[in-house]
Write a structure and sequence with these properties.
- About 50% of the residues are buried.
- Helix content is about 40%, strand content about 15%.
- It has two domains: about 160 residues, Aspartate Aminotransferase, domain 1 (Alpha-Beta Complex); about 250 residues, Type I PLP-dependent aspartate aminotransferase-like (Major domain) (Aspartate Aminotransferase, domain 2), CATH 3.40.640.10.
- The protein is an alpha/beta fold.
- It starts with 9 loop residues before the first helix and ends with a helix.
- It has a seven-stranded mixed beta sheet, with helices on both faces. The chain has a four-stranded mixed beta sheet with strand order 1-2-3-13.
- Bound molecules: 4'-deoxy-4'-aminopyridoxal-5'-phosphate.
- The site of 4'-deoxy-4'-aminopyridoxal-5'-phosphate (PMP) has 15 residues, from helix 4.
- 4'-deoxy-4'-aminopyridoxal-5'-phosphate binds next to helix 4.
């Protein structure tokens, strides 16, 4: 579908009207609502490989990838088989189970900085818990985050956050008290001096600095040369824990995440998305001495009815096992070719947009949101589903191949022309 044909959306629209009577904004997570681009979301009924199908039977090449987890593509046969086998054995026991140990061993093998870990059910929960652990371990009240960094929707982290929170133009959510926000210090991303000043000004008070090692909730912004190593040095000097939020980058920019790619060892790591293979999973973990404060070993309480859920563990395990070196090579190759093709269009057509990429994370950042909105709808009508906000990364999967690349570049050429 490279021609912008008149697309039928009747059944999607009808369902969204029912959803609108039920859910705030008709959705269960804000960015899905298309507020940044206008229009009505397509309701997806089925997915396979790199493609999605909506209720009206329209087909899309998918660059949302469920916002990160679907690195193998949708309905990967190994993941589905593991899930079916696990489901037949029962869906939750609330006791230890073998799969949680196996998945944890895979994670620890890929990320040696993680000596001990705890499974939770979302990235939000993981980041929130990691910071509680950091405060419990250090006995200090404050944290530093970077402007535009998104770490889920825990109160203390909704301060100058990116993702949907940035997109709606409210840096701090209503419902977060000033007292809570006051314990969150914010520095600009890629600015070591600003972090040094904060650590100095609040000497002995900062429990942790949390960072997305590749910023991916304000478009994709790679770390400046030496930035992550600089954060490591500054936090070590201040005896502040360095927390890498690798919810997006973990098992994505490299098997060992950004910490492997950039060679920096954090004290704690937060993971989600890929490690659950499309089911709800998060993890926080790191130094054994720090994790020793977590209940029942230590005084920091954190628990979960469905944590380590066997279905979620099965999906995550199948995903990590299918993520071979060849899969990472394919992701890099597709990413490089897509970046090159898009950049050629941007230059050739003199579009005011920037293309940024780290591995299989991409952004095309337009100078204004209205242009992006036109580009987005042009792509959608040509069968390419992009994240409906330019704050969000495009996610490439290992199922994206030659035909997807060709179709995406053909569609984007026309979409760029029409969005100028
Ligand atoms: N950290 C980062 C870097 C994220 O991108 C996200 C979600 N996109 C989260 C944390 C929160 O994860 P979840 O949506 O699973 O709560």
């Amino acid at each position: 579908m490279t021609e912008a044909t008149a697309i039928r959306t009747g059944r999607s629209d009808e369902l969204m009207a029912r959803a609108a009577r039920l859910f705030p904004g008709a959705v269960n997570s804000p960015v899905r609502a298309f507020r940044s681009v206008g229009g009505t979301p397509r309701v997806i009924e089925r997915a396979a490989g790199a493609r999605l199908w909506d209720m009206d039977g329209n087909e899309y090449i998918d660059y949302v990838g469920s916002w990160g987890p679907m690195i193998l593509g949708h309905a990967h046969p190994d993941v589905i088989a593991s899930l079916q086998q696990a489901a037949a054995r029962g869906t939750s026991y609330g006791t230890p189970n073998p799969l949680e140990v196996e998945l944890a061993e895979e994670i620890v093998a890929a990320m040696p900085s993680i000596e001990r870990l705890r499974f939770v059910n979302s990235g939000t929960e993981a980041a929130m818990s990691a910071l509680r652990v950091a405060r419990g371990f250090t006995g200090r009240p404050k944290i530093i985050k970077l402007a535009g960094g998104y770490h889920g929707h825990a109160d203390g982290l909704l301060v100058r956050a990116g993702s949907g929170a940035g997109g709606i133009g409210r840096p701090t959510s209503a419902g977060v008290t000033e007292a809570t926000a006051a314990d969150t210090l914010v520095a600009p991303y890629n600015d070591l001096d600003a972090v040094a000043r904060l650590l100095d000004e609040h000497r002995g008070k900062v429990a942790a600095l949390i960072v997305e090692p590749v910023a991916a909730n304000v478009g994709v912004v790679p770390p400046a040369d030496g930035y992550l190593a600089g954060l490591r040095r500054l936090t070590a000097d201040a005896e502040t824990l360095l927390v890498f939020d690798e919810v997006i980058t973990g098992f994505r920019v490299a098997r060992g995440g950004a910490q492997a790619l950039f060679g920096v060892r954090p004290d704690l790591t937060v993971l989600g998305k890929i490690i659950g293979g499309g089911l709800p999973v998060g993890v926080y973990g790191g130094r054994a001495d720090v994790m020793a404060v977590v209940a029942p070993d230590g005084p920091v309480y954190q628990a979960g009815t469905l944590s380590g859920n066997p279905l979620a563990m099965a999906a995550g395990l199948a995903t990590l096992r299918a993520l071979t070196d060849e899969a990472y090579e394919a992701l890099e190759k597709y990413g490089a070719e897509l970046e090159e093709g898009l950049s050629e269009h941007v230059e050739g057509l003199r579009v005011t947009a920037r293309v940024a990429r780290v591995g299989s994370l991409m952004t095309v950042f337009f100078d204004d949101d209205a242009r992006f909105a036109r580009f987005f709808h042009n792509m959608l009508d040509r069968g390419v589903m992009l994240p409906p906000s330019q704050q969000e990364a495009w996610f490439i999967s290992a199922a994206h191949g030659e035909s997807e690349l060709e179709q995406t570049l053909a569609a984007s050429r026309q979409a760029f022309e029409e969005s100028r």
